[in-house]
Amino acid sequence: MDTITTKLSSEEIFNLMKQFITEVIGEEFVEEMDITPESSFTKDLEMDSIEIVSFSEKIKAHFGDQIDFTGWLSSMDLDQLINLNLGMIISYIEECQ
Amino acid sequence: MPVVTVNGRSVHIQELNKEAAETIVLVHGMFSNLSVYYFNIAPLLATKYHVVLYDLKSHGMSEKALTGYDLTSMTNDLLALLEALKLQKVHLGGYSFGGLIALKMAIRFPERINKLAVIEAPDPNDDKTRGIIDEYSREFLEHYVENFTDTTKVKMGKRQMERNHRMYEYLFYQTSIKTDMEFEKDFFGSPAIETIKKPALLLYGTDSNCLNAGKHLEGLIENASLSAVPGDHNIPIQQPLVIAEALLNFFQEK
């Protein structure tokens, strides 16, 4: 697994997240979507919880111990998880870097 | 994606805190997947324990299988998973259908189990439980999705609805799951269940239509204690922290 050492800009993080989402839900679905930092995982991207597990896996594999993504998610209740959007993840990753 | 090969098929697993001395294995329910534990319950348990989650066959991201949904096959799979992960003895927890798998495990392989936690395991002889299998239809799916799955609060979009629909169609019409469940309908009535001597925690929702099943089990299992928490069959989703803390306290009790 490739663990990065240089800091990523928020745009780079956004592009990386888009790549992970595409890998998880498939290109044919992503093509029909307009993914923005405001996109919510459950409402806009229609990802279910097992797909968010896969997405978390990809973040962990990429960033390694640098960030505790599962720990961060576990502090959220169901409503927060439903409202989780890409921008929130981008800021969290930026803070951890 | 972490995958192990169990009885010739790939099984998706997630492990937390591998360094801990003791292990908890958690089994999810029918039409669900390991994510029912992944976000809230497993991380809390992982503060003290090595936690292992896995997707049952044809569920989540594990490989599909046409047959083998009876409790003997499901526990053969779990035993093979313990072997693959080199786990000699574990605490075991299961939710709904996963609770039945946990009970069967305690009957068949007591030497591999420390303590047993059963969340909302239904009585397979209950008409409502079997009705789920009998009444299947598109309308039913929508109803089921609204009321019984871990996506309760989320209105499903088209892609998700179709994804779930495909899973139900596959499980109901192509696999042996219906007949395998019919086969288990006398499970609570079998003398084997009374042979369970492990300390057992039974967690049920105060408003669940499975609560009577919990009371029934409490009478059958010598060292079982029933704890009812506010909620219905979906308590792990409705009250993840209450469930996680109850499990943690139970497994830690000397």
From TrEMBL, chain A:
InterPro entries in UniProt: ACP-like_sf (IPR036736), PP-bd_ACP (IPR009081)
Domain Carrier, first and last residues per copy: 11-97
Protein's name in the database: Carrier domain-containing protein
Source organism: Pedobacter zeae
TrEMBL record, chain B:
UniProt domain AB hydrolase-1: residue ranges: 23-148
A matching Pfam family: Abhydrolase_1
InterPro entries, per the entry: AB_hydrolase_1 (IPR000073), AB_hydrolase_fold (IPR029058), AB_hydrolase_sf (IPR050266)
GO CC annotations, alphabetized: membrane
Name of the protein this chain belongs to: Pimeloyl-ACP methyl ester carboxylesterase
Organism of derivation: Pedobacter zeae
